[in-house]
Amino acid sequence: MSQSQLSTKHLLGIKYINTDDINLIFKTAQNFKEVINRPIKKVPSLRDVTIANLFFENSTRTRISFELAEKRLSADTVNFSAASSSVKKGETLLDTVNNILSMKVDMVVMRHPAPGAHHFLANHIDANIVNAGDGTHEHPTQALLDAFSMTEKVGNLKGKKVVIVGDVMHSRVALSNIYCLQKLGAKVMVCGPPTLIPQHMSSLGVEVEYDIDKALAWCDIANILRIQLERQDIKYIPSLREYALYYGVNKERLSKLDKSITIMHPGPINRGVEITSDVADSEHSIILQQVENGVAIRMAVLYLLAGVRGSE
After folding, report:
1. Confidence class of residue 86 from pLDDT cuts 50, 70 and 90?
2. Selected catalytic residue, list 118, 139, 161, 183
3. How far is 207 from 163, CA to CA, in rounded Å?
4. Is the CATH number 3.40.720.10 carried by domain 14-139+292-311?
5. DSSP character for 285?
6. Where do the domains of the chain lie?
């Protein structure tokens, strides 16, 4: 029996939802994708819902994607940026959120540098919480849009081989992707320099490979991560040039494979470092589809969470 609503009132991480939740989000996103490709791209689904976007870390793509999803659903939105807020004056997270909730906010979409900040909020306030990224922990909507994009391209993910390449150590995308792909039955490998692969990776049931050419030969899909220089307080790689030489995905590497693989990247791309332009813009790449699917997936998540709220 397929689910008609989510099993949880928050989206704190992929770890805390089940496979039926994921499939329901995908099915709902498919419907919303048809909506956003119509001449009139709005539906009144969340007309009476107020959503606060709280971004305590800089974000362009995720924030715009959520804002667009909220507008398409006709929700009222409050946008909050920590850089220009009372947080700078020492206000606590709970004070900030309580002040916003006093404006009668129903849902909170939050990005925060501290892992677990969303769990803290979920225990203290009544609104639905959506995790838009917490530190280097999870980024659930990115994993959902990645997996949704994969299913559009290759169908059912059961038994499919997906390699996550690059800066796994500092990536919240990697952990959410691993949880999501495993719940959908895919085989997962991580690949990158030993300094950028956390030691606990094999305990998550993923394969670890340090040779990019072997990893690309193994996989059906390669999800290539950005080198996150802003999160690296010490140098994990000698130079970007050296990283590009040993781990950069380029046309030459792909031409040596005896098959065609699907290329993905959560963005923003460091062109010429982890991936070259001729690969990012090639027919094998579904990077632009990921961006489009991001709005549909976030519409689905917000819509379904509002449904859980309404049934309480």
Report:
1. low
2. 139
3. 9
4. no
5. B
6. 14-139+292-311, 140-290
Distance CA 245, CA 273 (A): 8
What six digits make up the tokens of 28?
A: 């709902």
Choose the catalytic residue: 41, 47, 61, 124: 61
φ/ψ of 132, rounded to 5, equals: -100, 25
Give me the CATH code for the 140-290 domain, please. Answer: 3.40.50.1370
Q: Which two tokens stand for residue 303?
A: 């819509």
| Residues 6+ positions from 59 with CB-CB distance below 8 Å | 111, 132, 133
Q: Which of 62, 96, 136, 262 is catalytic?
A: 62
CA distance readout (Å), 37 to 42, 74, 119: 10, 16, 35
Amino acid at 187: K
**Which token pair is 123?**
């225990």
Q: For 50-74, how does the pLDDT look when each residue is reduced to its tens digit (9 = 90+)? A: 999 999 888 888 999 999 999 999 9
- Average pLDDT in the chain: 90
Residue 235 annotated as catalytic: no
Structure tokens at 47: 């007309």
What is the pLDDT at residue 99?
Answer: 82
**Encoded tokens for 195:** 């300094």
pLDDT in tens, 144-202: 999 999 999 999 999 999 999 999 988 889 999 999 999 999 999 999 999 999 988 98
Instruction: For residue 112, indicate whether it is catalytic.
Output: no
d(CA 215, CA 71): 40
Same fold, 14-139+292-311 and 140-290: yes
DSSP codes, 30-80 = HHHHHHHTSSS----TTTT-EEEEEESS--SHHHHHHHHHHHHTT-EEEEE
pTM of the predicted protein model: 0.93
The two structure tokens encoding residue 87: 């947080």
Helices then strands, counting H and E runs in the chain, come out as 11, 9
Selected catalytic residue, list 111, 118, 160, 183? 111
111 among known catalytic residues: yes
